[in-house]
Amino acid sequence: MSEARRGLAEAVLSSGGRIGEALPEATASRITRCAEQYGKAGVTDGDLLVFSGLASETLLAAVVACWKIGAAAWVTPREPGTFEGHGASFTVTPGSAEEITVARRATAAVPVPAGLGLLHETSGSTGEPKLARRSVESIRAEHVGYRGGMGLGVEDTVRIPVPVAHSFGSGVALAALLSGCRVDARPFATPSGVAHDLDRGKSTKLAVTPALLRLLTKTRRKGDSRPQAILVGAGTVSDELDAACVARFGVPITRGYGSSETGGMFIGSRGLGQPIPAVGIVGPDPGSRGELLVRTATPVWGYAHEPVRDSLLWRTGDIVERDASGQVWFVEREPGVVRANGKFVDVSSIRAAVGEVEGVEEVEFLVLPRAGDAEFEDVYAVVSGRPPSRETVENALYASVPPGFAPRLRVFAEFPRTDIGKLDRTALTEWIRAK
Description:
Layout: H1 3-15, E1 18-19, H2 24-41, E2 48-52, H3 56-68, E3 72-76, E4 90-94, E5 100-104, E6 116-121, E7 131-135, H4 136-150, E8 157-159, H5 167-178, E9 182-184, H6 191-199, E10 205-208, H7 210-217, E11 229-232, H8 239-249, E12 253-259, E13 263-268, E14 274-275, E15 279-283, E16 288-296, E17 313-322, E18 328-333, E19 337-340, E20 343-346, H9 348-355, E21 360-370, E22 373-385, H10 390-400, E23 408-412, H11 425-434
Parallel strand pairs: 1-9, 2-3, 2-4, 3-6, 8-9, 8-10, 10-11, 11-12, 22-23
Antiparallel strand pairs: 4-5, 6-7, 12-13, 13-14, 15-16, 16-17, 17-18, 19-20, 21-22
């Protein structure tokens, strides 16, 4: 039942991919040691293991080892004890040095689909994060996309200073390993440290978020080498950031677009990029605006609490412009959801709670670039009307937001309108900036 997972592990091991400074043989030995620990702990074919708190490079080795023995992996950025088991048989947490600790969970295990590779937590939603299923086939398809879009090869060292516990980091890291690259997944300690890896030629390619790249572009050059590619994902890329990247590192940004549910789907130099070979655009039509609808070569499996999906169609929830040439440009998240700093938050319940305050007439949410740091975004909850006090609105707002989401409140007697009576977002943005 687990041949797909075992085959994926074998593909990593046979590629010559390296984790950290290790040679291929040492990387394989590290993976084998993890697999032996699983065997001693009682892990068997078809189990689900939840990984929490591991350093990125240890996590990569531990996940490949998990597949090697036929088990599936659930990777979470959260600490043990802060999440439900959702059918996981074992937890894998940090041990001494680069080792791991494997412990059986008391909760009952659930059947694991034969082709399941990973469970990834979606980010930015209200309440408990959803667990998105990633099939082995989708991981392989993502590898093909990144390999072609970034030009990954055995001679590359790919610097990934973003967490591989999240889908963007793990997708690039696994694609690099499958391509035979060396993966340097040390965390982002200082901007100068990461930038100097590129300046000295220690790293040939980089995967990073817009906010982190902004910090890197402000560093001073300390070497003559230039990276061959800089992939930016999990956020919106401005033309100004692209220009800053060219000025500092000598290469334009390679844009990446995807989700926890699908992995990377688009990659390229403009807009959202171009669809990878396993993805086709169904809608909107060229020259129009609408929700981005794609067809994938293998089904997007959906979420762990739902039946496995078998449809090849996937609605992204993102509103895009598709120009006459077919190029896709991000516009906004679908109504009811805001996107800020690469994360999505459903604000429907927040809007309803604030709207119930006496005197409140309308509630809108705007996402604006932070002044002086355009790659960081701030969310504004903007209210029109005459409530009893600002404090009353604040109490309703902050009682209804999910953890980690802190919109800035602005209250106006009324909203600006266009000539036909619609909300004038341009004018409202100016009001927010001026207040």
